[in-house]
Design brief:
Layout: H1 2-14, H2 19-51, H3 58-71, H4 75-124, H5 128-133, H6 136-178, H7 183-186, H8 190-227, H9 229-234, H10 238-290, H11 296-314, H12 316-337, H13 350-364, H14 373-391, H15 397-400
Helix pairs in contact: 2-3, 2-4, 2-6, 2-11, 3-4, 4-6, 6-8, 6-11, 6-12, 8-10, 8-12, 10-11, 13-14
Amino acid sequence: MAETKNKFKALWDLTAGQRRRYLLGAIAMTIGIALLYLSPLIVRAAIDGLIQQKPVGTGQEIFVRAIRSISGGSLAGSLFIAALLVIAVTAMGGAFTYLKGQSAALASESIARQLRNRLYNHLQHLSVAYHDTAKTGDLVQRCTSDVDTVRLFYASQLVELGRCVVLAILALGIFLWLDWKMTPVAMAMLPVVLAFALIFFKRVQNSFKAMDEAEGAMTTVLQENLTGIRVVRAFSRQEFEIDKFEQRNRTHRDLNYHLFWIMAYYWACSDFLCLAQTALVLMVGGWRVAHGAMSIGTLVAFITLVSMLIWPVRQMGRILSELGKAMVALGRIQEILASQRNPNLKIPPPACRIAQKERSRCATSPSHTAPSKSSKASISRSAREKQSRCSAPPVPAKQRS
């Protein structure tokens, strides 16, 4: 429990510097969802108020009168205006959804870039003993595949998690406003889908960790063979290394198959629950319409709103699975960052590294000819200048001016 809490805190800490972008994305997402929810209400007003000419409530009654006055009382003109409004509202909702995606993409790319730079800088300061014991293929996977898993979570899954929450809150308010007696029916399967998604999250997290470690072991074997291919051929170990890689590959394949089997089982069951929710609303709503307790427009609005709500909530399983993958990937990255740095390791500045590289190249190059006296003097003078620049203390601003 404490480990999971620490990983959630680490995920939150990585958003430092990008939280304003996520806030703007959340605002744009809320506005976009509210605009998309207006479409079923416009359809309800068109069916009940314009076609059947029944009372549709105080708020929508003003809307119906405005459409009739604009169209001059023509039913065809009123329906045309209502259709244009649905298109306009949907287009505006799509624009705000685009702004949400743009903000999340910019924030996630910045987080991934900072994480890569942090990992690279930390690896440069680790001791030689750590690099001797660490597996290169596993380090490569943690710095590439695991970082990309974290980036994908911040790019889409984090925003989708907030989207599901906003969808549920706004839909609950609209359901209660339309028909409070029908609201429990419209939300009946929602807790079941959420509970099923949480169970799926637990199973996927463990399976993905095992699969990720198996992929790291397979990558390590591949990297070692590509690096030491001459040694393998010199000792005629080709068959042994092929069998070794085949064993790692088979383990990774079996774990990956098990993970996909869990996901397929979840999607099949969640599809059944979502369709059962729509069928339940249609059955109960149809019975209430037949007995005059509900209008046809309200039933159409309920079915549309339930479809807009239940299918994104169904994605909670995918979102939670990606969250589990991100937590596993972040844990593997933290294992590198938690390694103790070498306190005696000092990386020289770039100018000093260039001077050292030039001196070593001149000293070890076999094609280097003996320089003349003038070139010797210029080389030594240039080396002394670079060495003095590297070792000299910084000049205060007052002396420079």
